[in-house]
Amino acid sequence: MIVLDLDGTLVNSEKKISEKNKKALQKAMQKGIKVVLASGRPVKGILPKAMELELHKNNGYILAFNGGRIINVTTRECLFEADLPEGHLKKVYELSRKCDIGLVTYEGNNKLITEDDNKYIQLELKVNQLERITPPNIMEYVTFPVAKYLLAGEPEKVEKAEPIFKQALSKELNIFRSDPFFLEILPLGVDKAYGLERLIKILGISKQDVIACGDGYNDITMLQFAGLGVAMKNATEQTKAAADYITLSNDEDGIAAVIEKFIL
Length: 264
Description:
The protein has ten helices and 14 strands. The strands form two sheets. It has an eight-stranded mixed sheet with strand order 5-4-3-2-1-12-13-14, sandwiched between helices. A six-stranded mixed sheet has the order 8-7-6-9-11-10, sandwiched between helices. By secondary structure, it is an alpha/beta fold. The chain is globular and about 50 Å long. The protein folds into two domains: 2-82 and 190-262, HAD superfamily/HAD-like (Rossmann fold); 89-187, Hypothetical Protein, Haloacid Dehalogenase-like Hydrolase, Chain: A, domain 2 (2-Layer Sandwich).
């Protein structure tokens, strides 16, 4: 199995999968390698890339919401889902006001809910092709289970916000930065490694037979869990430190290089 983060890893700076990466992955699938796309994105933001790679024809999988959803791309069956426990939205909302960063969450696979707006929220909408819902009061609107909260703002504000959120909520929720401008809040214990561990148990694959590739803070646990953890040349220093191997950057077909070296 090869498990790939999307942004900064499989896709290049233009958010596209290069032909070289695509051909390498197709060759790997022909050898019987399972391909998994693991991202903080919601399901809708990952599916087009999965279809482009023809994962639906090759028994591929998606780990969406940083491991909070496991989807069989062929059948579209949800094999696992973890939602945030109720009762935390008020505190998260109040802290987002204190830290002056935008708060968003999700309804189903297609809708992003927020009162706020900034260029990073616009990026989340655009990349994932989500419908925006703007309620007058997000706390009154969200009366249903959600996969995650996402805090979005200027990197220096998000950096300052992270310890504040962790001090208030880290005993009950999993809090980490996925990008300099995104702070993610997931159910306690849920991350890409957690989702990957559940998936390989379902499929009967040993973690020693898994290659995981990523570039961000939210990829670190997955890289540490896999038999071979690969960081991109453009990865954060912390991610590189957690990896067994460093490949070329996402703009240099780094995934194709991994497949050619370790699989083909």
